[in-house]
Design goal:
Distance between the termini: 27 Å
CATH topology of the largest domain: BirA Bifunctional Protein, domain 2
Mean pLDDT: 92
Radius of gyration: 29 Å
Number of strands: 20
Structural class: alpha+beta
Largest sheet: 8 strands, mixed
Shape: elongated
CATH architecture of the largest domain: 2-Layer Sandwich
CATH superfamily of the largest domain: Bira Bifunctional Protein, Domain 2
Helix content: 25-40%
C-alpha cells in the first residue's frame, strides 16, 4: 500500500510496525507499565554505597539516542524528569537459544522516538556515567514520525531546534527535543500557585464566572462573537470578568478572585495573544492605595517562589520585584517624556499634540483614548523597574471612582514593568447614576467609530442600584508576568499552545 503524502522515513516506520505485528508484538500495549523510578531521581540519589536500593528499577521513556556495539548497545531515554543512559546486552533481553530477537527487534525495528519500558539495575560505567543495565525491555509505543535529531557532544548542543514556527505549532515535539522548555511552564505553575496561595491565605474566595456573555463588558476591547443556537441570540467571548466579580461584591462577598481565560479580537505580537489569562480580584472596603501595597507583596512573593530571588533578568535589565514600587501620575509621566503638560488640554489640543509627535490620532478618539495613546507612545517604555502609573483622567476610566481630592481624575493605577502594562487597578465606581452616565459616554464614542468602547450593561447597573460597598479591584496579566519571571521575550514562549494561522495541509475540509 503506497503512502504518497508520507516521507520516506514515515513509510519505513509504518513498514516496521507491520513487521512487529506479524511477529506478534503489540506496539501499543494496553496494560499499564509498573514504573517505580525516574531518570533524575536515579542520577541524583545513586551511589556505590547505596546500590542495593537500585537493584530492581523500572522506568519508561522515549529513546533519544542509540549506539550499536554489536552484541550490546547503549541508548539514552528521556522521561518526564530528564535523561538516563541504558546498557542493553543481547544475552540479557534475548535469553535462551534464540538470539535473533535482539537483532530483529531491537536493532532493526526500534527507532529514535519510540517509547520503551525497561527493568534492570543501576550501575556506573567505566566512564563514570550512572546507567541502567537492562534485563527486560518492552516496546510501549511505536513512533511513526521521526523526531528532529539534536546532536550533543561533551555538553555542547548542535543543530538545536529553534525555529519558532515549528516550536509553536508542534509544541509536543518542541518539548521532546528541547526539554528545557518544560522549565518555563513549571515556573508558570509555581507563579500561579504562589498567587493563589497568597490570596487564599488572606481569606479570598476563588470563583468562576461566565465565559460566554450577552454583553462584552469590563474592558475596552474588540470581542469575539459567536451564536447560541438554542437561544438564537449572539454571545460574546468575555473580554474581562470584572463586572461579574463586582456583582458578587454586591451580593455580600468581601473578597473574590478568578484566574480567567479572556479573549480579545485584536492584533498579535510578542506581548499580545487573542486568548490570554488574567487574575482579577475585588475586595470590599478597600481602595487603590491598599491595592498597590497588596500587589507589591503578592508579586514579590511570586518572584521568590519562581526564582528564589526578587531580581530577574529581562533583556539587558535586572528587574527587582522587591517592594515598594515607584509611583508617578500619568500626567507627570507624559510631561517627563514630552516636555508638555497635557493636564489642562481639551480633545483638539491633544489630537494636535499627537499629530506633532507623529502619533496616529483620528476623529473617533476621545480625550481618554488620546491621552492613552500619548502615554503608550512616549512614556510607557521608559519604566523598566516596577512602577505604578496613577491618577488617570476620568475620560480614560469609565468604571473607576472619581479621585477624592483631584478634580477630573480617578483613583486608578497601571503597573508598568519593563516598559509594558502588567496590571490595571481601580478604586471601583459604585455610584449607579455616575456609572450610567459613563456608559452613555462610551456609547457616544462607539457611534463615532471607536470599536473598543464599552457597551451599556443594564443588569450591572441594576446590581449597583442595590448598593455596592467601597471596593478595590485589579486585573493582572498572567502571561506577561510569566514572561518577566521566566526571562522570556515573547508571549508565545509562555503559552503552551499559542494561536497561529492554520497550516494549509491541516485545514479541515468543507
Amino acid at each position: 500500500m503506497s503512502h504518497p503524502s508520507l516521507s520516506e522515513q514515515e513509510i519505513i516506520r509504518r513498514e516496521k510496525l507491520k513487521s512487529l505485528v506479524e511477529m506478534g508484538i503489540d506496539a501499543y500495549p494496553a496494560a499499564a507499565y509498573p514504573v517505580n523510578s525516574h531518570a533524575a531521581e536515579i542520577k541524583s540519589s545513586y551511589t556505590e554505597e547505596n546500590k542495593a536500593g537500585f537493584e530492581s528499577v523500572c522506568l519508561a521513556g522515549r529513546i533519544m539516542s542509540i549506539r550499536d556495539m554489536g552484541k550490546a548497545s547503549f541508548a539514552v531515554i528521556q522521561d518526564s524528569s530528564g535523561r538516563i543512559q541504558l546498557y542493553i546486552k543481547r544475552d540479557d533481553i534475548a535469553p535462551g537459544e534464540d538470539k535473533s530477537a535482539y537483532d530483529r527487534v531491537w536493532k532493526h525495528l526500534v527507532d529514535l522516538g519510540d517509547i520503551i519500558g525497561v527493568k534492570g539495575y543501576v550501575f556506573i560505567t567505566k566512564t563514570g556515567e550512572i546507567s541502567v543495565h537492562v534485563k527486560e525491555l518492552t516496546l510501549l509505543s511505536k513512533a511513526l514520525r521521526p523526531i528532529p535529531v539534536v546532536k550533543e557532544k561533551e555538553g555542547e548542543t548542535f543543530d538545536a531546534v529553534t525555529d519558532p514556527e515549528f516550536r509553536y505549532r508542534q509544541r509536543y515535539a518542541d518539548l521532546i527535543v528541547n526539554p528545557q522548555v518544560k522549565e518555563v511552564f513549571i515556573k508558570r505553575t509555581k507563579m500561579i500557585n504562589s498567587m493563589r496561595e497568597f490570596l487564599n491565605g488572606a481569606g479570598a474566595l476563588e470563583v468562576d464566572t461566565p465565559v460566554l456573555q450577552t454583553i462584552p463588558g469590563g474592558a475596552a476591547a474588540r470581542p469575539f462573537i459567536t451564536h447560541h443556537n438554542a437561544l438564537d441570540i449572539p454571545f460574546y467571548l468575555r473580554i474581562a470578568n470584572e463586572l461579574y466579580l463586582k456583582r458578587l461584591i454586591v451580593g455580600g462577598f468581601d473578597w473574590v478572585y478568578e484566574f480567567s481565560r479572556n479573549f480579545r479580537n485584536e492584533g498579535m505580537d510578542r506581548t499580545h495573544n487573542p486568548e490570554f489569562t488574567i487574575l482579577e480580584f475585588y475586595v470590599a472596603y478597600k481602595d487603590y492605595f491598599w491595592m498597590m501595597e497588596t500587589t507589591e507583596s503578592m508579586l514579590e512573593a511570586a518572584a521568590m517562589a519562581v526564582n528564589g530571588t526578587t531580581i530577574v533578568r529581562a533583556g539587558d535589565h535586572d528587574i527587582d520585584f522587591k517592594a515598594p514600587y515607584k509611583r508617578i501620575s500619568i500626567y507627570d509621566a507624559i510631561r517627563e517624556a514630552t516636555g508638555t503638560d497635557v493636564s489642562g488640554m481639551g480633545e483638539e489640543d491633544l489630537r494636535n499634540l499627537c499629530r506633532q509627535l507623529h502619533i496616529p490620532a483620528d476623529n473617533s478618539m476621545g480625550k481618554g483614548k488620546l491621552i492613552d495613546e500619548l502615554f503608550s507612545a512616549t512614556g510607557e517604555h521608559r519604566f523598566i523597574q516596577p512602577t505604578f502609573i496613577i491618577d488617570y483622567p476620568v475620560e480614560m476610566s469609565p468604571l473607576t471612582k472619581k479621585h477624592r481630592s483631584k478634580s477630573g481624575l480617578v483613583e486608578r493605577f497601571e503597573l508598568i514593568i519593563n516598559g509594558k502594562e502588567i496590571a490595571n487597578a481601580y478604586t471601583e465606581l459604585n455610584d449607579p447614576l455616575d456609572q450610567r452616565e459613563r456608559f452613555e459616554e462610551q456609547v457616544k464614542l462607539m457611534e463615532r467609530g471607536d470599536e473598543e468602547a464599552m457597551f451599556i450593561d443594564n443588569d450591572f447597573l441594576r446590581a449597583l442600584e442595590y448598593g455596592m460597598p467601597p471596593t478595590a479591584g485589579i486585573g493582572i496579566g498572567i502571561d506577561r508576568l510569566c514572561m518577566l519571571l521566566t526571562s522570556q521575550s515573547s508571549i508565545q514562549d509562555v503559552l503552551l499552545f499559542p494561536q497561529m494561522r492554520p497550516e494549509e495541509s491541516l485545514k479541515p475540509k468543507a
